Write the structure tokens for this entry.
Amino acid sequence: MQTHNPHEPDKQEARPEPEEIDASHGYEATDVRVSGVVVFLVALSIFAVVTAVLAYGVGKVINAHLARENGPPGKWAKTVDIRQLGNMPSNPEMQSKVAELTQQFPTPRLQTDDGSEDIANLHAREELLLENYSWANQEQGKVRIPIERAMELIAQSGLPVAPQVNHEPLLTGDSKPVVAYPLTNGFARTGYELEQTAAERPTAPAAHK
């Protein structure tokens, strides 16, 4: 059994004494290892070259696959070098060229602004017709009036009543068509059903005083 002798010094590994740092210069006196920087730059260059080669190869494969699926270019495929026209917002020639190219496509064409501009223009035209006076037919003297004024006139005079339809006498052998009701099997009756029910309902005799 191992025993510990208090008079015998401990046999431990000798720890190296920490190296004293000379701070008299006020900055790091040792130089950067040039070999490490060179290795990093070489590895970075190799990685960039390999990535470029892989991207180029993948692009060629994708373009070849798309070319096989799309087939030969048709009459609507046209290549235009837009770099010669410069910046589109400040170049009228570029804008006219793009407008000319878009007019060559058959209708219906896709809207470039998701229809927001067309809808805004439509609502603006509708508001002009609903809120202002305008000619409906100048030759006949017909004028459109604002909807608020039209509602006021209808509230004052009421809606026009349709004239009563005069039924022609039945010919020999004809009979008046009879509509079988109820027309619906639910709880909501139509106006015709309510009128027929009210007409067939026996009227209560008036009470004599």
Summary: The mean pLDDT is 76.
